[in-house]
Amino acid sequence: MTTRSELRAQRQETEAVEEPVTKTPPRHHFLFRLWGIICLTLLALGLLLNVTLLNPNFVKKEITSSSLESIMMNQVNSSLTQYGISTSVLKKSDTDKLITQAVDQIYAGEKINLDFSSVVNSVSSSVDSQLAQYGLSTSMLPAGSSSAVTNNINSIVNSQLNTPEVSQLITGIKIAKTSVNIILVICLISLVLLIIRGLWQRHFVKSFSWICIVASILYTVIILVAHTLAIQAGQYQADLSPFIVQVANDFQQQAFSGSLLMAGVGIGLFILQLIKRR
After folding, report:
1. Is 208 within a domain?
2. Which keywords appear in this protein's UniProt record, sorted alphabetically (predicted)?
C-alpha cells in the first residue's frame, strides 16, 4: 500500500516533469517585425524613387535615349520655322542641351526658360558663309538684330512649353520630393530604434532575418504591380507608349537590385542564426 509520503513524492516528480511544458512560450515579437517590414519596404521604395523618377539625371538620360526627344522638339521646331530657321539646324547635341535645361528647371521647381542663342548663332554662321560668296556679311545688318531674334524665339517657345500640365508636373514633383524625404526620415529613425531594441533584447538576428526576407518579397510585388500598371497605361497613349515602356523597364531593373540586396541580407542573417545554434 502506497503511503502518503510516497504519493507526495510522486506528485512532486510529476509537477517537475510538467513544469517545462507549462512555461510561457517565447515571444515572437510580431508587432516588432511587422513595423520593421513596413519601414524597410517604404525606405527601399523611397530610395528607389530618389534615384529614378525624382532624379533629374535619370529622367534626362531616359529622354535623350528615347523617341520622346524628337516628339518634344516638334513643338519647338514649329516655332523656329516662323523665323525661317530650318529644323536641320538643330543638332542632337543642341537638343540634348535644351532637354537638360528643361529638366533641370522643372526639378528645381522653376518654369521652363530655354535659351536658343546657340541655335541662332548657328544660323548666323550659316548665313555668313552663304553671304561671303557674294562678298557680303551679316555685320552689315542692323546692330542687335540677332539678339532681338533670340529674345523673340525664347519668349515664344517658352510660353508654348509652360502649359498648365507642366505647371502641375512641377507642383507634383515638389510634393513628391517632400513626401518621400519625410517618409525616408521616419523610416530610417524607426529602423535604427528597432535595431537598437533588437540588439538589446537579443533577437536582432532572428527578427531582422524575417524582416529583410518578407520586405524584399513585398517590395518586389509592389514593383511588379507598378510596372504592369505603367505598361497598361502606356497602351492608351500611342506617342508616349515606347517611352513609358522604356522608363518602366529601367525602373524595374533598378528596383530589382534593391530587392536582391534585402534578400541577400536576410539570407545572410539566417545563416548567421544557424551558425550560432551550432
Report:
1. yes
2. Membrane, Transmembrane, Transmembrane helix
